[in-house]
């Protein structure tokens, strides 16, 4: 297999990136091109950047129509400065030795190749697909090979279209409310406008390296990404639906299509964990089946953060075999627990899980759902002494929005 890798901050991704990727795919006979959104690129360590989740969202939107393009979270999920050599080593392990990797890079970047971490090792891991850029049309290939003998036969010069689109200029235009049409994909333009991404003073202002972890825990940003993904994956649909209860609804939400999706599970864990940390819980559980992937996502996210939270699930009925337990999982008596689920309608499933946890000798201190349908469940929970926190809420008009409580 032949795989191209196009890395960048993608702040924002634009048509120049897409043209280069497609040209490389066609000229090099690549099976796919991976768009690698940078986390903290060390060569740009002093430059402010838009939060990684939003840059990754824009990449996903930009490449959605091309089956040969793929978006990778590899670098944004890695803590600390990101280095190309580490990314390539991880990719080679994942893709296997039979895969040939072509790292797509501009001629201007090759001028700084000697500054890259372990350039000789990079040349052993991949071929370089060097692309001309406006202002960088000439390349001393012989001089490059003299400086790096390992580059012999491993550098391909690509005559890609010369499209002079600048990320800096796009950010300036967006901040000034000027048109980005025909410079970024329509979906990316709409995303930037909807989020007011580059407007100074908004909640999506540019950030500096070191602030990413803080923003990653900002529930608003992560939940907004979760809502975008729910729409993209079909977990949230609008139209005319008849629910199991027989009631008509203008939308349909299937939380498991979200929480069982790898990207969705990642976002669920990131969205819920800060809420649970603030409540100082030491276990998280919920009713089967909806909460099963959710509590797993939280447990994994907590382990990655270095403060593991054990997870448990509550069966809808008591087992008649084995240990005959209602609760499955390592729940310790006396724990402060959170009960979570994908939706809250009348609150019945949540109250069943709450009762089971309390019967096991635990104290329920937090109740959280992805979506509150606002059909009386929150009020019933409050009447019984439990406050519901929802990531998303249904509006009276039948829309689904990020909850103002995040």
Keywords:
406 residues, alpha/beta, Rossmann fold, six-stranded parallel β-sheet, 15 helices, 37% helix
Describe the structure.
Helix 3 runs parallel beside helix 5 (119-125), helix 10 (219-233) runs antiparallel to helix 12 (262-278) and helix 12 crosses helix 13. The protein is an alpha/beta fold and 406 residues long. The protein has two domains: 2-158, 3-Layer(aba) Sandwich (Rossmann fold); 229-402, Rossmann fold, CATH 3.40.50.2020. The chain is built from 15 helices and 15 strands. Mean pLDDT is 85; it is low at 201-217. The protein has a seven-stranded mixed beta sheet, sandwiched between helices. Strands 3-2-1-4-5-6 form a six-stranded parallel beta sheet.
Quick summary:
The protein is α/β, with parallel strands linked by helices. The chain has helices spanning 15-28, 52-63, 84-95, 107-110, 119-125, 141-147, 167-175, 186-195, 212-216, 219-233, 255-259, 262-278, 292-305, 348-359, 377-383, and strands at 2-8, 32-37, 69-72, 100-106, 127-131, 155-158, 236-242, 248-253, 283-287, 311-314, 327-328, 336-344, 363-372, 388-394, 400-402.
């Amino acid at each position: 297999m032949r795989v191209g890798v196009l890395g960048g901050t993608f702040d924002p991704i634009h048509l120049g990136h897409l043209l280069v990727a497609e040209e490389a795919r066609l000229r090099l006979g690549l099976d796919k091109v991976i768009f690698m959104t940078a986390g903290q690129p060390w060569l740009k360590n002093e430059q402010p950047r838009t939060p990684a989740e939003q840059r990754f969202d824009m990449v996903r939107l930009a490449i959605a129509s091309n089956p040969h393009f793929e978006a990778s979270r590899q670098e944004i999920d890695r803590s600390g400065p990101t280095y190309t050599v580490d990314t390539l080593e991880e990719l080679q392990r994942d893709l296997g030795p039979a895969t040939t990797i072509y790292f797509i890079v501009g001629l201007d970047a090759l001028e700084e190749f000697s500054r890259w971490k372990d350039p000789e090792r990079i040349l052993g891991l991949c071929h370089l697909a060097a692309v001309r850029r406006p202002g960088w049309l000439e390349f001393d290939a012989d001089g490059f090979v003299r400086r790096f003998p390992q580059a012999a036969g491993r550098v391909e010069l690509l005559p890609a279209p010369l499209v002079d689109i600048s990320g800096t200029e796009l950010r300036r235009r967006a901040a000034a409310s000027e048109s980005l049409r025909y410079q970024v994909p329509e979906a990316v333009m709409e995303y930037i406008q909807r989020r007011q991404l580059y407007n100074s003073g908004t909640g999506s202002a540019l950030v500096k390296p070191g602030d990413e972890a803080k923003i990653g825990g900002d529930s608003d940003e992560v939940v907004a990404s979760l809502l975008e993904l729910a729409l993209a994956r079909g977990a949230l649909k609008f139209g005319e639906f008849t629910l199991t209860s027989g009631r008509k609804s203008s939308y349909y939400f299937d939380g498991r299509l979200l929480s069982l999706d790898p990207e969705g599970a990642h976002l669920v864990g990131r969205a819920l964990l800060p809420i649970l940390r603030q409540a100082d819980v030491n276990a998280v559980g919920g009713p089967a089946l909806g909460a099963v992937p959710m509590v797993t996502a939280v447990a994994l996210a907590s382990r990655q953060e270095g403060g593991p939270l054990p997870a448990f699930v509550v069966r809808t009925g008591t087992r008649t075999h084995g240990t005959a337990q209602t609760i499955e999982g390592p729940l310790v008596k006396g724990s402060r627990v959170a009960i979570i689920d994908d939706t809250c309608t009348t609150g019945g499933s949540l109250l069943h899980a709450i009762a089971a946890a309390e019967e096991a000798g635990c104290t329920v201190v937090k109740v959280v759902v992805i979506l509150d349908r606002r059909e009386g469940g929150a009020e019933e929970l409050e009447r019984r002494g439990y406050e519901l926190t929802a990531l998303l809420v249904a509006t009276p008009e039948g829309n689904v929005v990020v909850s103002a409580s995040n």
